[in-house]
């Protein structure tokens, strides 16, 4: 028979938002249970150098997440290595079913399942991830000071990343498979006026070229979608900016979503469309997507949950 576990607060997800929520919920004596999910530590575990975490000039992403997990455990949170496969928010207590068969019930739920960058799906892209291929200019742009880089995409994210990278790179080539951008007009105007940015229209990236030892990107191979002609663009870094996919499958038919699947929260809070259910981090945030903002929202979610539980009592 499946094991049944009850807690005042169930936290689903284990990035900066989840672990920070666990720290605060534990310090409020809510005895939270945190279920880590498929990728314990979230997106930061696939980031090598983190240079914008306050208090650490340099820190490795996986090391930072190990420290956060240890902090949550030290405060009294129970951290469970499992994956929530279904969640019922229609009645109280809320019920979550894990892959292991364990049934978790809770008086309040904090969703911190994050988001994943969308990738091109090329074997060469996978090969050079962390060695010249990135999906976050604000995380990794610093490493390309004085070098040439490529950005792939055509929306706001791609334009923002390209403009940001001009702070470091000598040249930024933006590759888009169409002949016009989807980004806001004001952003496009800034992009087209920038002397460091060059556009490559109607091209799709076929392969990322690089060295084996040490591993590093040297160029991008792009094909003209109209003529089929192939061009190699020399670069030291490739930034894939074709969007993010929030991990909202668990709640897609239960909570209000917007902007392609991000959970809607009430302004200035982490309250979702169901009382007692809170959301934090990249699952709700399609604008900032930073570790530090996710951690801040994790704190907010725990405090919101604490107030909610006090009102219920």
Provide an overview of this structure:
With 313 residues, this protein is α/β, with parallel strands linked by helices. It has two domains: 4-116 and 244-312, FAD/NAD(P)-binding domain; 119-240, FAD/NAD(P)-binding domain (3-Layer(bba) Sandwich). 25% of the residues lie in helices and 30% in strands. The strands form six sheets. Strands 1, 2, 5, 6, 7, 8 and 21 form a seven-stranded mixed β-sheet that branches. The longest helix has 22 residues, at 291-312. The radius of gyration is 21 Å and the shape is elongated.
Fraction of residues in helices? Answer: 10-25%
Radius of gyration: 21 Å
Distance between the termini: 31 Å
Number-wise, the strands total: 21
Largest sheet: 7 strands, mixed
Shape: elongated
Give the total of domains. Answer: 2
For CATH, the homologous superfamily of the largest domain is named as FAD/NAD(P)-binding domain
- How many helical stretches? 7
Along the chain, the helix and strand elements come as EHEEEHEEEEEHEHEHEHEEEEEEEEEH
CATH topology (fold) name of the largest domain: FAD/NAD(P)-binding domain
Please give the CATH class of the largest domain. Alpha Beta
Unreliable sequence segments: none
- Structural class, from secondary structure content? alpha/beta
CATH architecture of the largest domain: 3-Layer(bba) Sandwich
Range of strand content: 25-35%
Average pLDDT for all residues:
94
